[in-house]
Design a protein that fits this description.
Oligomer: single chain
CATH class of the largest domain: Alpha Beta
CATH superfamily of the largest domain: P-loop containing nucleotide triphosphate hydrolases
CATH architecture of the largest domain: 3-Layer(aba) Sandwich
Distance between the termini: 18 Å
CATH topology of the largest domain: Rossmann fold
Number of strands: 20
Number of domains: 4
Shape: globular
Bound molecules: adenosine-5'-diphosphate, magnesium ion
């Protein structure tokens, strides 16, 4: 997928084949790493730099330092001191002397560096067996090479794909810069560039690829991060539509709230009471309410939202609760039905797969302006759905929605009050920077009886032991979840995932013939899903094998064992969510993480899961671990990509960008002013007009 073309102008939109050196073969290879246009190529940034500014004469290479030398291979041989180890030894000489170079367990070196090869080596010098360089990076110099690109400078190191080498990539980027960067249109207004002391876009592109000095890398990255953050903030601010202006004062006397509270099967926690009081106060005020309600999984956000919706109904308004998946919407409606029984409040569900007659009835209810509560999925956003009497919008699992979807809901009505709930807590600093205009309310206390889940990594070789543990737990009356990964969204999960979950289902049925094993995934009919879940709730199913559709909301206190298969394939936030399905009753609960992490990051994630139970702490780690932009799902939501800007590291810049975005939209909401032309380019708008995604 090409990344820039949507928001760019020529020359950035030109196909990459316009660049010198890119033929049909290279074009295909580049496509693998998302490069289709000149813009994509210029925005394919180095992941690191090698400092090759100072090539040292061999004679002065000292032990215990990093050195870069340039010379010619005079001899090379491979030896095998033991079965496990082989050593490639080579001697490299320059005009000042010669140096022994060794590589451990890289036997292919011998063939790639025949005698006479001219090389640049950078690596550590030791004096283990006389002075020698160990495992250096190698760059082979061919005759007549534009030496200046690959040596004697800060050399960019790019993310690559099969079929293209570092050197080729450097040459391509260099050629593209030379030919096209002069015409790079500026996408930030002069006032911002000056105010933030940024370098120009052209200089930043050159400086990030082929910097003259380390300072230049910093300045260039800062400039590009600023672009990314400003466009992210513009889109977020604009599409949240929080008008700080007038909303609805929902302040009629409460009639039902007390009944509602007294009918709950539990007592509200103090945190819940505080949150409800705060939300009520804001709903009563004539200013539109924007609340970010955060709480760890299981902290009981739903009942807080239910109170707020009830208040809206008492005020003669309609309230909607929007959930990211059908299964979660179904879960919500069934728990709301439980909570609202006896209050007489009309409740309805609107989701894609309900029967047409039911949908029609719900739409009529909404159109009738009668006070009611409607739970729904994206179906609530369809054009046909009118929401003329909306008093409150609650968005659950906010991170799963695209910004544009939120905007669509908001545009349907006059400024209703808004609560966004997130189960992936957002670290405080980031919440401030992204949701600064929201009042943040935190449920910092879980209902009593909730306990930390004992979490262990289980190696494949210990699978049998784990089965034994499950058997004993189920024999004691507990239930277990088995969760398998699922790629993509519920609606378009591929056959592969279904195969995955069916395979696991078969396996668990074989292993536990004495128990009732069930299966749950997104491709099942809603009724069947509902039936399976209620059988699990009722204890008729003892082991439930499921995809991550159970990740949110599903609530079965008797389930005390969670097995996560291929846990290395899940993100941290998701692992925490999934784990949150257990530890909800009075029983000690366990979570077993299976799978072989193949990357350092995956291993780190599993390690964090086994040592931390607190969602807020996990979120902090998540933010640091994940690549820029992945956190919060901003990557999927259609808002700008963050390639350089890092939500955790660059928080100051993010704050600055927020102020700028607010100022720009405050003074020129339709981006009509001449000086804001570059901003339109930045967010891909051809014409002036209201900003949304
Ligand atoms: P989350 O914040 O993860 O969305 P939920 O709102 O789904 O949490 O609540 C999780 C479970 O805790 C539900 O079964 C709910 O009925 C229960 N619950 C909520 N508040 C309390 C409370 N104060 N005491 C006991 N159980 C509660
Ligand atoms: Mg929830």
């Amino acid at each position: 997928m090409t990344q820039n073309s949507a928001t760019e102008h020529p020359p950035f939109t030109l196909p990459v084949t316009k660049c010198k050196g890119v033929g049909p073969r290279t074009e295909l290879i580049l496509r693998n790493i998302g490069i289709a246009t000149i813009g994509d190529l210029l925005y394919h940034f180095p992941r690191a730099y090698l400092d090759r500014r100072d090539i040292e004469p061999i004679a002065s290479a000292q032990p215990a330092q990093q050195a870069v030398i340039k010379g010619e291979v005079t001899s090379i041989r491979l030896s095998r001191p033991s079965r496990r180890m082989n050593i490639t030894q080579c001697v490299v000489k320059d005009g000042t002397g010669s140096l022994k170079v060794v590589w451990f367990n890289q036997p292919y070196m011998r063939r790639s560096l025949p005698r006479g090869t001219k090389v640049i080596l950078s690596g550590a010098v030791s004096d283990r067996r006389g002075i020698q360089m160990e495992n250096p990076d190698v760059e082979i110099l061919s005759d007549g090479e534009e030496v200046s690109l690959h040596t004697m400078r800060l050399v960019p190191v790019y993310p690559l794909t099969e079929g293209i080498s570092q050197k080729q990539m450097r040459r391509l980027v260099h050629a593209a810069l030379k030919e096209f960067s002069t015409f790079a249109p500026e996408n930030l207004p002069k006032s911002i560039i000056e105010g933030m002391r940024l370098v120009s876009r052209r200089d930043a592109l050159r400086g990030i690829h082929f910097p003259e000095a380390t300072d230049e890398i910093k300045a260039s990255r800062r400039r590009i991060a600023a672009e990314e953050f400003i466009s992210l903030q513009l889109c977020m601010q604009a599409s949240m539509c929080y008008s700080t202006g007038t909303g609805i004062a929902q302040n009629s006397l409460p009639r039902l709230t007390a009944v509602f509270e007294s009918r709950l099967p539990f007592r509200l926690t103090d945190a819940q009471k505080r949150a409800i009081a705060e939300i009520f106060r804001r709903m009563e005020s004539p200013t539109q309410m924007n609340v970010l309600l955060q709480g760890d999984v299981g902290s009981g956000k739903t009942v807080v939202a239910a109170c707020a919706m009830l208040k809206s109904v008492e005020n003669g308004r309609q309230a909607v609760l929007m959930a990211p998946t059908e299964i979660l919407a179904e879960q919500h409606i069934s728990s709301l039905r439980g909570m609202f029984g006896g209050t007489g409040v009309p409740l309805a569900l609107l989701s894609g797969s309900r029967p047409a007659s039911e949908k029609k009835a719900t739409l009529e209810l909404l159109a009738s302006l009668r006070p009611c509560i409607v739970v729904g999925t994206h179906a609530l956003l369809r054009d046909k759905v009118g929401l003329p009497n909306l008093g409150l919008v609650v968005i659950d699992e906010q991170h799963r929605f695209g910004v544009s979807q939120r905007a669509a809901l908001h545009q349907k009505s006059i400024a209703p009050d808004l609560i966004v709930m997130t189960a992936t807590p957002i670290p405080r600093t980031l919440a401030l920077a992204l949701y600064g205009s929201f009042a943040s309310i935190v449920l910092d206390e879980c209902p009593s009886g909730r306990r930390p889940v004992v979490t262990r990594y289980v190696h494949e070789s210990e699978r049998a032991r784990m089965y034994k543990f499950i058997r004993e737990s189920v024999d004691c009356g507990r239930q277990a979840f088995v969760v398998c990964p699922e790629i993509g969204e519920e609606c378009d999960s591929g056959a592969r995932d279904i195969a995955g979950v069916s395979g696991m289902f078969t396996l668990y049925m074989k292993v536990f013939p004495q128990f009732s094993v069930g299966v749950l995934h997104g491709r099942m009919q809603p009724e069947e899903r509902e039936r399976t879940l209620s059988r699990f709730r009722a204890g008729e199913i003892q082991i439930l094998v499921a995809t991550t559709i159970i990740e949110v909301g599903v609530d079965v206190p008797n389930a005390a064992v969670m097995v996560i298969e291929d846990a290395d394939r899940f993100g941290l936030a998701q692992l925490h969510q999934v784990r949150g399905r257990v530890g909800r009753g009075q029983h000690e609960s366990y979570c077993f993480l299976m799978g072989e992490p193949s990357t350092e990051q995956a291993a780190k994630r599993l390690e964090i899961m086994t040592s931390i139970n607190d969602g807020f702490q996990i979120a902090e780690h998540d933010l640091l671990l994940r690549g820029p932009g992945e956190f919060l799902g901003v990557a999927q939501s259609g808002s700008p990509k963050l390639r350089v800007g890092h939500l955790a590291r660059d928080i100051d810049l993010l704050q600055e960008a927020r102020k700028i975005a607010l100022a720009v939209l405050g003074s020129d909401p339709r981006l009509e002013r001449l000086e804001n032309g570059p901003i339109r380019l930045l967010i891909g708008k051809d014409q002036p007009g209201p900003v949304h995604l």
